[in-house]
Amino acid sequence: MSSFSSILSFSVLLALTQAHGVILGAQGIKGSPESVGFQVNPELARNCTSISPCQQDTTIIRDQEIIDNVVNECGRTELAGNIDIGENTENALAAGAVTQVQSGTQMIVTIHQVNADGAGPYTCDLVEAGNNGIITQNLTVEDNVPGVNGLSQAKFQDFNIKVNMPDNFTCTGSSAGNVCTVRCRNNAQAGPFGGCFPVQQVDVTPNVNTAANIPSAQSLEKITAQVAQNQKDLPAAIAAVQNAGSDQALQNSAAVSSLLKQTITSSVAPTLTVDVATGVATTAAATSSAAAKTNNGNGRKGNNGNNNANSNANSRQGKGNNVSNNERRRRSLFIA
Ligand SMILES: *[C@@H]1O[C@H](CO)[C@@H](O)[C@H](O)[C@H]1NC(C)=O
Ligand SMILES: *[C@@H]1O[C@H](CO)[C@@H](O)[C@H](O)[C@H]1NC(C)=O
Ligand SMILES: *[C@@H]1O[C@H](CO)[C@@H](O)[C@H](O)[C@H]1NC(C)=O
Ligand SMILES: *[C@@H]1O[C@H](CO)[C@@H](O)[C@H](O)[C@H]1NC(C)=O
């Protein structure tokens, strides 16, 4: 599946030894397209163990980096940094490179072990909404990559593992409304290494998102911690973006793009108009909105009449406002 080209004449200076495993392919239902790990590049050589070039597109997925909001649940590569799940999924869909699955599909996932600590065992899990950061189910893995604690003596070798989709799951992600993200990673101290790839579910009715049918699941404590972390990180992040726009950085990026023949298949996204119910709300809705108004009235009146009720009501309201503001901020920072 990898077409190697004789492009690499880097003189490479190496000191550190790291390790890696790369998801070269994932095949669900026979005859459907094959998925490839996000940011895995077919032009990179697979016959060496060096950090550059052979480890550059392997994915490092560390829980602490996810908590720190440095990366999302699919981690980062040495070459390209944080992996934008939404973008990579849309690119794969446009290129017709998303494998298909249904209840109980056994997928064959090809993992390339670059060097010692790209070994097994690998564990895999599922984000049914694609890129909302919520791991909903763990997946069973058979015929795992040999190894203990992510280490073995194998190097530049491909292994086919079996990853089983659950009996009951519902992929709701991507513009297609039926794409999940599968994540696999090992348990190496220098890693974990692994990657993510998209799967398209064919035995489900594609989901149509509305703002109201998107579940949110973040505690106030986590949101507050996230906001504090983001505020701490922002100056460095702004500096990094400025640096990435420097002449030298742009030249480097263009050189890499050309060496790795990085091209993206584009398809035009439709412009949709969402139907809304207009006119005056009918009974049920009208009653609840009247009730809400009454509550507000009572709340305000309560404040005037009773100091205890007043402070309780205010503190509850304060928390509610925090959640919605921070949730909005989190989504815009985290799910790029
Ligand atoms: C490794 O693969 C590259 C292509 O990716 C090829 O040019 C090179 O000759 C190979 N090296 C060895 C030692 O086989
Ligand atoms: C998946 O497995 C991990 C490790 O055992 C566990 O902590 C986690 O709760 C499981 N997740 C789900 C969704 O079952
Ligand atoms: C499948 O999962 C959904 C969502 O968790 C649940 O509501 C439903 O009962 C499950 N169905 C079966 C057959 O387990
Ligand atoms: C949330 O609201 C509470 C009470 O109004 C306030 O003390 C706290 O600082 C707010 N937190 C954030 C993160 O805005």
Write the layout of secondary structure elements.
Blueprint: E1 21-27, E2 59-60, H1 63-67, E3 76-77, E4 81-82, H2 85-94, E5 99-101, E6 106-113, E7 123-127, E8 137-142, E9 157-164, E10 179-185, E11 193-201, H3 220-244, H4 247-259, H5 283-305, H6 307-334
Parallel strand pairs: 5-11
Antiparallel strand pairs: 1-6, 2-3, 2-11, 3-4, 6-9, 7-8, 7-10, 8-9, 10-11
Give a structural overview.
With 336 residues, the protein is α+β, with helices and mostly antiparallel strands. The chain is 31% helix and 18% strand. It contains 6 helices and 11 strands. Strands 1, 2, 3, 4, 5, 6, 7, 8, 9, 10 and 11 form an 11-stranded mixed sheet that branches.
Short description:
The protein is an alpha+beta fold and 336 residues long. The chain contains six helices and eleven strands.
